[in-house]
Design goal:
alpha+beta, Tetrahydropterin Synthase, Chain A, 4 domains, three-stranded antiparallel β-sheet, 9 helices
């Protein structure tokens, strides 16, 4: 078998093969190229914007979501979220009637894409602590001071809308927008809660008493109406019966002619002739007198 012969390039020092230094240079150059390439672009995720800083100076140009090139080692990109974020916290305030109020509130907010660079330059990334938290607490105290403790319960939606308006007026100028404001819960002192409970019980009892009185009046009116109807019906029946009797009597009277009367007298005659003589008609009249029949 023929032996394989390898030919290697001879180095300047008479040795064969690649120099170790050359391999290291290639490796370093490759790493450097890769590092530069990785720092030559940025990817902004969905729902975010990129704030570009060139040698530490914030640029007004805000990068949209997607792939972007940048100058390596010269430009840095800070990602800012433009999604709706939720801030929930507790708050203490005093009502118009000087009742202590503890509440839990929830704020849904977001920053606009266009304002991202300005917020980063003037506030930084912790804008929730620097801007939102103190303004929310101030707005809560300002609004609740206009209402009594009882009104805060009965008009919670109106109070929430007013607080949202306060937050909008103070945060919109920074490019922060309130999507939704909720008062999750109101809590008052034990004395106030007991007073409210006692008032509610009294109102319920008053409503119950009033309802019972109204029901009694309705029943009494119904009974009176029933009696009136029965009396009217009875009166109508008596009137109808009397009218029927009168009509029958009149009908009977109208039906009695002179012939019928003569016939009735003849039927009642006892057969005794009258003692007085005279006209035949008179004889009959006298002889058939009711006295003679008796």
């Amino acid at each position: 078998m023929a032996q394989e012969v390898k030919f290697e390039r001879m180095n300047n020092d008479g040795s064969f093969g690649k120099k170790p230094g050359t391999m290291i240079k290639f490796a370093v150059a490759g790493v450097a190229a890769l590092f530069i390439a990785l720092n030559s672009f940025t990817i902004i995720p969905a729902g975010h914007s990129g704030v570009v800083m060139t040698l530490g100076k914030v640029s007004d140009n805000v990068l949209q979501e997607g792939f972007h090139l940048k100058a390596p080692f010269v430009q840095n990109v800070e990602t800012m979220s433009n999604k709706i974020q939720v801030y929930e916290t507790s708050s203490s305030a005093v009502s118009k009637d000087l009742q202590s109020i503890s509440s839990v509130i929830s704020v849904n907010y977001k920053i606009s894409n266009e304002a991202s660079a300005e917020i980063y330059k003037n506030v930084g990334t912790d804008y929730k602590t620097v801007l939102i938290m103190p303004i929310v607490q101030e707005g809560m105290k300002s609004a609740t001071a206009k209402y009594t403790a009882e009104e805060l319960i009965t008009k919670r939606a109106a109070v929430g809308d007013e607080i949202k308006s306060i937050l909008d007026a103070k945060l919109n100028e920074y490019g922060i927008y309130i999507e939704k404001f909720n008062i999750v819960n109101f809590d008052f002192s034990q004395e106030f809660n007991e007073a409210i409970e006692a008032k509610q019980v009294a109102e319920q009892n008053l409503i119950k008493t009033k309802t019972e009185q109204e029901q009694a009046i309705v029943i009494a009116n119904a009974e009176a109406e029933k009696k009136i109807i029965a009396a009217n019906a009875e009166a109508d029946a008596i009137k109808t019966k009397a009218q029927a009797q009168a009509d029958a009597n009149k009908l009977l009277q109208d039906s009695l002619s002179s012939i019928v009367l003569q016939y009735e007298k003849i039927q009642k005659w006892n057969g005794t002739l009258p003692k007085v003589t005279g006209d035949s008609d008179l004889l009959i009249d006298v002889g058939l007198d009711d006295t003679a029949s008796n």
